[in-house]
Specification:
The protein is α+β, with helices and mostly antiparallel strands. It has a 5-stranded antiparallel sheet with strand order 1-2-3-5-4. The longest helix has 21 residues, at 262-282. The mean pLDDT is 91. It has 2 domains: 2-96, 2-Layer Sandwich (Phosphorylase Kinase, domain 1); 106-325, Alpha-Beta Complex (Aminoglycoside 3'-phosphotransferase, Chain: A, domain 2), CATH 3.90.1200. Helix content is 50%, strand content 13%.
């Protein structure tokens, strides 16, 4: 890391730097670096992800993450961290370090019971703004020849892996894969999760765009809504607040859809949601806070009927989850 900082002109031979590893990610080495005159963050993609299963993803995704940030910041100023330098041969880049006291992580706020529906609405609007800006842009689509990266990171590890665990759902899960991979409307972040969203002074900041892909924006919406449902198991006392965040995020997003009929993207989102829901307990990337078999059974109980009998409204997915929880 020090050699990279020197190559990029951010650290001289005579200067010292203090490197502190940052936790939370499975796909990259991420360091906080205290330089003589500024503090930065350096990120290097890993080929083998830090999970129990064998999960390999091309390191080239680091190049496309940088490009995603550039485009997102143009579309919605404040949506991405400020970029400083990159080393394309080492598959790493340097960006500003955002202090947690000024940019708290949304996941931590939700964990602590801070279910701010207004902020959830901001997330929905910011996401829709980026999708709208990039919709039908052939030049942007050409910048992201990342189908294989997205498939390995999301389709194989989530839906395909889940199909191996549930052969009775294989046809339905592969249909979701086909729709996601063949719907091309906008630039997709690929990992819109509360763990990758900071609550900044200028609104939500999106991090970890390693799975960026020009495809179906319904994936981003479903991916984020999925986490709000699952967190009802993490902090049961906050379930109603989490479901309110779910409703407001979806509504604020759908209100800005201008690249296709909003009913169409909502239907794809509602169909995809139970697949992602099930994938977080039976796929390769298991959510860390669903720890008991009783909790996993609740997820399966809600997800499987929604997969075999898809609904068109995201509100219907939340209603089925509420019924399962007995609320």
């Amino acid at each position: 890391m020090r050699l990279a900082l020197k190559r990029l002109g951010l650290l001289s031979e005579r200067d010292e730097a203090t490197l502190t590893p940052l936790t939370g990610g499975i796909a990259s080495d991420i360091w906080k670096v205290a330089l003589p005159h500024q503090t930065v963050c350096i990120k290097r993609a890993l080929h083998r992800l830090k999970v129990e299963a064998d999960w390999f993803v091309p390191v080239e995704r680091n190049l496309y993450e940088w490009q995603y940030y550039e485009i997102a910041e143009t579309a919605a100023p404040g949506a991405a961290p400020r970029l400083l330098a990159r080393d394309n041969e080492a598959y790493l880049f340097v960006m500003e370090y955002l202090e947690p006291r000024d940019y708290p992580l949304w996941k931590h706020q939700l964990r602590d019971g801070l279910t701010d529906a207004d902020f959830a609405a901001q997330v929905g609007r910011r996401l829709a703004t980026i999708h709208s800006y990039t919709a039908a842009h052939r030049d942007i689509a050409d910048m992201f020849p990342t189908d294989a990266i997205f498939y390995a990171s999301r389709m194989e590890s989530y839906l395909e892996a889940t199909a191996r665990m549930h052969p009775d759902l294989e046809e339905r899960l592969f249909a979701l894969i086909h729709t996601t991979m063949h719907t091309r409307h906008a630039l997709v972040h690929g990992d819109v999760s509360p763990k990758n969203i900071l609550n900044g002074p200028r609104g939500p900041v999106l991090l970890d765009a390693e799975c960026a892909f020009y495809g179906d924006p319904a994936f981003d919406l479903a991916f984020c809504l999925n986490h709000l449902l699952l967190k009802c198991l993490w902090t049961p006392s906050s379930s109603q607040g989490l479901l309110k965040c779910y409703d407001t995020l979806a509504a604020s997003y759908l209100a800005l859809v201008d690249w296709e009929p909003s009913a169409e993207i909502e239907a794809r989102t509602a169909s995809l949601l139970p697949g992602l829901f099930l994938a977080r307990i039976d796929g390769k990337s298991k959510v860390e806070y669903v720890t008991s078999e009783e909790q996993r059974s609740l997820v399966r109980q809600a997800a499987k009927p929604l997969l075999t009998h898809p609904v068109d409204l995201v509100a219907d997915v939340a209603a089925e989850w509420q019924r399962t929880l007995g609320e």
